[in-house]
Amino acid sequence: MNDLSIEGAVTPYQRLTSRFERLAIIDEASAMLGWDQAAVMPEGGAAARGDQLATLAGVAHGMLAAPEVEEDLAAAEIAPPADPVERRNLALMRRAYRRATAVPADLVEAVARESAACETVWRGARRDADFAAVRPRLEVLLGLIREQAAALGATLGLSPYDALIDSYQPGITAAEIEPVFDRYEAFLRDNLAAVEARQAGRMAGLPGTPPFAEAAQEALCRRLAERVGLDFRGARLDRSLHPFCGGTPTDIRITTRYDEADFASALMGVLHESGHGLYEAGLPRARARQPVGAAAGMAVHESQSLIVELQAARSDPFLRWLGPQLAAAFGQPPADFAPDRLAARLRRVERSFIRVEADEVTYPAHVILRFRLEAAMVAGDLAVADLPAAWNDGMRALLGIVPPDDARGCLQDIHWYVGLFGYFPSYTLGAMAAAQLMQAARRARPDIDAALAEGDFAPLRDWLRANVHGHGARYGFNELLVEATGKPLDPASFEAHLRARYLA
Fold this sequence. Notes:
The protein is about 65% helix and about 5% strand. It is mostly helical.
């Protein structure tokens, strides 16, 4: 933290940068408490943790919504900074202030407290496949989220659901997402059977023979994270019920879960979360703890995890390198991890129940379902009590399957049970952006695939640092894609990638 206090700052803009630096530090503390809650906190700590997170949320809200912030914003906007990046920072400060003043402080604290309480109940409900156990808590939390969304929407001139989407990926609305998702639903309907038929005709045996020892998986996961570029002098790898990346840009916390019957879940989970961590670590240090130095939104964030996991780590060149590493880690014959066998597991297309384990062809269907359901819940068109049945109907319509229980249905994801309504679209928007970014990266760096064949992510990582990470939040989602690829989001790039990998 610099030596500039809010009181000692010379100009309104300097007072704002000092205030937002302090706000960022509070957010960092909350992030570390959130990581602890998911990774190591005992169940008995839930109530106190809820109080801690709610108090920090309230303190941050009070700092951001203070009357003097409006005064400094108004003064700074009269004579804005000459530097275009600092002008963008000022605009992002104004956006944050508008969002903060739209929501009363007591509601901010109530959402934080109820999210922590609901998450704790959800963990047991998921374990027991008992939606009824968490339903009352989710009803309370959804009521608070709807209240929050209505307040945000009224201030921002958005629908309540669009106001929630804007919380995670600014500048994108449901009206823009719907045609993209409808297009992909049609693509899936037209091509899924052909993908399955082609796969059936060339299926190789699965790689390796279980059990795959957890200790060996964990050691390999750590080495792969280092290959991607994660520096463990400022990172940790731990376990949690739901894999995630948390922490701060200089203290990155990634988690995964292990299954001795299947090494792929942990492996791909760590590669995915390492992509998130790499993005955080690559954000512009000169703008650290300022809005413009943060990530450009969750769709951009997901593009960075998916360009590592799906575009790079499941590519033919990387699989040729990965096979011998797996054989050595598990003490099995290299032939058992030949590229065709790895592809049979890591690129297997299957209509399945669990989003985080879905293949890249059917994964968007899982997101489309959640997008439609959460939009209906926020609008008041779908009651929490009807969620399991609506989920099952949606899975039947999109993929032709119905989960046998709610643990593999509406209880599987943590998001709604911690109040993250509006987040899900970012996953598929990110997957589409990742395909588009990879096309541009390969054009600019023709050596990417040769490097991946040696387990070397450096050419791809360097391109991402220059064209994505280093920009922070200077650009919006589509603006960033234009800067990096020459065009806004184009679903055709993702469709071309899938055709080349699964139908060629």
